[in-house]
Specification:
The protein has 139 residues and is mostly helical. The protein has helices spanning 11-23, 28-42, 51-103, 108-138.
Length: 139
């Protein structure tokens, strides 16, 4: 059960309260309760609160977050992409080998395929790395 309490404020503050509550389409009671809740949750002193400090702090946090994301993209995600690329290439090569070995019954075919693999893998990795690096330069 809520009991009403009275607080004395100056006429000037009462006028400001009425204007602000009206601008936000709130009752004076709702406006005051929201203001008290705001400062209570932030454990801030309403007489010394400076929103510019809060904006500055939030900007610093955002900057750190983006810095972290850029670091992740440059280091961790780049390596993951390279590994996924290698796995894809090896999958393609393996499927091709199975078809070739099945079609030919010559033991030297396997050695020839291994040599081709080395060349093919190196070529594909260079191509994909160049494409990725070129794509990052354009961003």
């Amino acid at each position: 059960m809520n009991h009403s309490k009275k607080v004395n404020i100056s006429s000037q503050v009462h006028h400001l309260l009425t204007e602000e509550a009206g601008r936000l389409n709130l009752s004076r009671k709702d406006y005051i309760e929201a203001a008290v809740q705001f400062f209570s949750e932030r454990q801030s002193n309403p007489t010394t609160y400076q929103p510019e400090e809060t904006k500055k702090m939030l900007q610093e946090v955002i900057d750190r977050l983006f810095s972290y994301l850029v670091h992740q993209e440059k280091h961790l995600l780049k390596k993951l992409l390279e590994e996924a690329t290698k796995a894809r290439i090896l999958g393609e090569v393996s499927a091709n080998h199975l078809l070739t070995l099945r079609a030919q019954d010559d033991p030297s075919t396997f050695e020839q395929l291994q040599q081709q693999d080395q060349q093919y893998l190196a070529q594909r990795l260079r191509k994909m790395t160049n494409q990725r690096d070129h794509g990052h330069e354009q961003k």
